[in-house]
Amino acid sequence: MQLVRAKLASSLVISLLLAPSFASAQEDDPDDLVVNTDEEAEEAEEAEAAPVEKEVAPTEAAKAEALANQQEDFTIRHGFWTQADLGVFFSFGGKNYDPVEGLKSKGFSNIQPFVGVTAGYDIAYSNSYQFALGAKLAAAYSAGAARVTDAAVARVGADASTMSQDFGIYELGLLAKFGFFLSPRVALNVAIDGGASFVDPDPTKAATEDGAGKSVFAPLFGAALGVEYYTLLNDFSIGLDLRFAMAMVSGASIPGLSITLPMRYTF
Q: Which of 29, 47, 48, 140 lies 20 to 30 Å (CA to CA) from residue 153?
């Protein structure tokens, strides 16, 4: 009898010890168990055995095609624009005063600054050309070449040496510009401009004459030839212009040449 009781007690103790493990096993979700099927194993093996694709460098033909597509997508912006011109200016002819040798003729003046601002609008344009009108403000400077004529020397004698050799030409006028596209981003430009200018001081007046040291009105006209490059920022361009201009001061016209770098922004 005692043996039976001992067996029952031991069975009870074992049941109590195993109860938590059994409950934990019952709570586990059978869906969380991962079972690898034969089909999944075969797919994994095929993925490992598949060759790795190497990146192929683009061919020259592919590069050319990509460049052509890029050029087709490039569209120059047209409309209202402003342009800044920075460069150099020199006048042709004139005379320079030397205290020893007197007045000496000069082929051209010393090279001085040229600055200009233009506001314009594209009136007509296509993929091959563009035509614009605008208003221009500019300032050109000359040094070392007074506008002395033989008549002036006969009129004022030795005082001719007091005629100003340094002066500025200030322009206010209108501009018309035609551009022909040599490529989608390069244009050859021809421009003409004209209007009023003031030359300060008047380089035709000796110090003893009325009006000496003051500015003088002079009609002005100019013509320019240039090349323009449109950057990938299709509203911005930069170029190179060569411009001839003539300021017609009474009794002594002033021809000049400017070389500028025009920078244009289209709004």
A: 140
